[in-house]
Give the backbone structure.
Amino acid sequence: MARESFIEINYIDDKKPIYYVADLLCRFGWSLYNPKGQIEYLPLGDNDDFNWKAEAMPKQELEQLMLEKQKNDELAGINLFYEGTDFGISLTGKNTDDICISLDINRYKIDESRESLTNISWYFEKIIKILYSDKSMRFSYKIVDFIS
């Protein structure tokens, strides 16, 4: 059985780099760094091939990379990891107009079975409520848990 779970976020106000959302989430328990201390991201010139790279770099360098990708109208991507767990998400988008948050890194489930449903309430608490706390930006969202 295949599973795909994601959250679509659409900011209504100013277009900001996708890094803006990553930075906000990182203030509330998410981390840019994987367990090996590396940042996982889509590099410049990826051309939507999704050839993720992982390397140690300061977050300021990642921020500059994301700004350059937005300037080039490229799809930006960053993996985030929830501190103290092995759960992660993939943020992709060209800017805050249309962001896809894939719940694809050790998806948090209701139980341990392979076919288990995604624990949507955990992601709502750890993502949507955090984004909502930033009153400077209005957004809409849609949560999808696709089962096939």
Notes: The longest strand covers residues 3-11. The chain has one domain: 3-147. The beta strands are 3-11, 30-31, 39-41, 53-55, 76-82, 88-93, 99-105, 139-147.
